Amino acid sequence: MSTKRVLYLTHYADLYGANRSLLDLLVAARVAGTVDPFVVMACDGPLRAELERAGIAHAVVPFVPWMHKRVFSGGAHHRLLQRMRFRRQARERDRINNGLLQAIVELARSHRAQLVHTNSSVIGIGGAVARALDVPHVWHIRELPFLHYGFSVDGGMRRYARELRQARAIIAISKAVVDDMRALAPSPGQVHLLHDGVMPMAQWQRLGAAIGTRGGQQEFHFLLAALFHPSKGQAEAVEAFAEVHSRHPHTRLCFAGSGRSEEVRAMVHQKGLDDVVRFAGFVDDVLPLMERSHVLLQCSRHEALGRVTLEAMACALPVIGHASGATPELLDDGVTGLLYSTPQELVERMCRLVADPMLCARMGEAGRAAIPGRYTVEAMLDKTLSIYESCIFG
User: Fold this and answer.
1) Residue 253 has what pLDDT?
2) Which site in 30, 154, 221, 275 is 20 to 30 Å from 318, CA atoms measured?
3) pLDDT at residue 53 is higher than 80
4) Which of the four CATH numbers 3.40.50.2000, 3.40.640.10, 1.10.10.10, 3.30.565.10 does domain 4-197+376-393 have?
5) 152-191, pLDDT tens digit by residue?
6) By CB neighbour count within 10 A (0-12 exposed, 13-18 middle, 19+ buried), where does 33 fall?
């Protein structure tokens, strides 16, 4: 299989799920000699440092996403004015992207790109770049942008559907994403279900040695790792933990992630939980936190995949997850974790695992056993290369 020259587009530069998965893919492909990548980032940040460390060519071109949340308030007159303002903002974003299109195209030509790989649904410029180059466009859809984030598309849903249909291939990271796109009518042959790989097989094997240390801890630790956002469920976790802690005083809760945490911190203080709830902030590597925890809470609504869920499974950490989005695809309820739908069910699931360490251990081992061959970086790379091959030469 010949080396593919690929231009990648990513709209942010932090090391959250989409970029971490992209970085894993690029490093593995570069080491294997199967892809010669060039990454165009919309802004500077930690991803750039990681690309430099890996020797991956990149550039910053400040294009802007075409999906945003629109919040309306007030009466009919106010909403009309707000709608007009949102349309002006959308036109301005299109103007910015049209002005930057040629710069991205020239970078791709300099790289002799054979294919454009867009790393998110919120990036609308990838199709135009591919058409200008006359190369295939592979669109990696990593979100449930409307259910999870409440986004709207600049130019409307018809524009989004049209761009999806023009892509040579669409990579969906879960069945939930496939279902979400079905109404937009991309051809079934375009859509490829490809779960993210969360770590190389060798790393999965090394993790096994670090897992047996949880049993000696006197405290029982819950972990929730996510960007602070209402859709991620941090407030619900605090409410549930307050009740769990009243029944089991040896329990602790840790939040890992950046973002606006003020409201959650205020809840913790109001409930008198300051001494037992920790805010770790953003962490470059969440695995050490997982190795010291007993249960991962995945309280996010309509999660498109939940990379952190798979990382927890790889660490033999049982997961309590909200029964929405792709979470039920990843968790075998009662085997690798527990699903919940209501706040009281969350409390009950948390208490159940606190009271039964043997159940925690069994679920953790079952989750860990599900990773090899399905959620590894090697599996992700193999299927991605197959998609590239069919797009370029098929």
Assistant:
1) 98
2) 275
3) yes
4) 3.40.50.2000
5) 999 999 999 999 999 999 999 999 999 998 888 778 889 9
6) exposed
Q: What is the DSSP string of 70-86?
A: ----SSHHHHHHHHHHH
Cα separation, 93 vs 254, whole angstroms: 38
CA atoms within 13 A on the CB side of 224: 29
pLDDT digits (tens, 9 = 90+) for 198-254: 999 999 998 876 666 555 578 999 999 999 989 999 999 999 999 999 999 999 999
Let me know if the fold of 4-197+376-393 is the same as that of 201-369: yes
Report how far residue 284's alpha carbon sits from residue 312's, in angstroms, rounded to the nearest whole number.
15
Dihedral over alpha carbons 311, 357, 231, 331 (to 10 degrees): 60
pTM: 0.91
Alpha-carbon distances, residue 368 vs 305, 337, 361, 371 (angstroms): 17, 11, 11, 6
Q: Give the CATH number of domain 201-369; options: 3.20.20.140, 3.40.50.2000, 3.40.50.720, 1.10.3720.10.
A: 3.40.50.2000
The CA-atom distances, in angstroms, between 377 and each of 46, 226, 228, 257, 360 are 21, 21, 27, 23, 26
Tokens 């792709």 identify what position? 326
